[in-house]
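Fig. S4 source data, part A: sequence.
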Amino acid sequence: MKIFLAGYNVDSEVLEELKKKSPHREDVTPETLSASYARISRDPRPVNELRAVARAEVKRARRSNRDIIFKMGHHSVAEHAVFNFDIIGMSRLSIEEIEKFRLCSYTEKSQRYITLTDDFVIPEEIKKAGLKDVFTKTIKTQNALYHRLYKKLKSYFFEKNKEMAENPKKHSILDGWAKEDARYVTSLATEGQLGMTTNARNLEFMIRRFASKKLAELKEFNQKIFALAKEVAPSILLFTEANDFDSRTYGELEDKAQSFLESSGEGKEPVSLVDYTPDADTKLIASLLHTISSLSYDQCLKKATQLKQKEKRDYLKAAFQYMEFYDFPLRELEYVNLTYDLVISASCFGQLKRHRMATLTAQRYNPGLGVTVPPSVDAVGSRKEFMKMMDETNHVYSLLKDALDCGAEYVLTNAHRRRVLLEVNARELYHISRLREDVTSQWDIRRTAAEMSRLAREVMPLTCLLIGGKDAYPEVYKDVFGKSPKFFPPEF
């Protein structure tokens, strides 16, 4: 066996320094990795030799990439080229669009842990419509309320949690609670930043999709990111033009639906389980039997159906008995699915969207669904002031919506809600529950995740035997097995 470290991410500024101190080289590009790995299937030479050939013949490597991707359709070779991007000064609204691409990696500036300043994006659409002044005034009023709320909420959380306040190491937690609740009044125009890592295949998909977007901010982002990547790796970014599929499909679906679809304010239930795998516990057992036997799935399902409830419980306990709080459940849980209709705040959505192995589609933000008011805002007597700001925001949103083709949502806040459809398999639901029901999780998504788990337990109780937040895992495990797990979650 031979294993070589073929490459790794290096800061671009380090690369530029190295290039300045060295003779000119054509091979400072991830394209050579794509080209050499593409040759593995047809060239018997060791892959480290193929890499050396690609580095020595960059022009040929680029032609090879184009032929393999364009003519032969093997897009997977582009996945070997990886890019890191610093994205600074984009709005929260546009960052949500970027983070829809679930096979990329993101780390985002958190509004929970960082005290916000008054930085926000003024969209080109709003400038051109002559509505810059009313937009800016509204955002500044929201931000002023954020700072007033933060000050009050900080005092409130320190006073309410005196034991924690006595420990300086806990002060950042209490301060964070104040920030995360105060941010509900800030807009989707608020500037953020993130680090993004993506391979060339997913970057090409992002560029092509954004080429059809109407929002000026996304168009500008798209032009800049394409120019940067193409300079380094032109041969693996090929299908980047706007197309009818991306630009027209949803619009035409909306137009065709107008004759039979009426918008309504009904159905504001925050968490509804609208579909799920019937007989999920039995089908999970059948999937496990299929893995460990030589039987067909139909035969396994028949065997599982014949088991008594206690036998089913005992069998699934065997699937969970060695699982610690940090373990993922067995992959067979992915054959069991649940679909939720959720009405959640922008703040809650910002955390839910990070669960990229789920299937998540979202409607536009809709003031008709109301807003989510943090309980702490009630506790400090600021609900009236908070709701007055929401009313003012909704009024300006209406003005913007009447005047703009797109972009009115910039003025809406983290408190505003949207309806989303979320499908998860049971394995991913465990992950959501572990992370989002934990005591350290933010209260809004913790409430949503807890209700999702409750509804899941009703329809597939055995599948959900050990579901729950990380902090509750020892208790949940003990209830099922009569003893504590081997490892305990660390205290926050």
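Fig. S4 source data, part B ends here. The mean pLDDT is 92.
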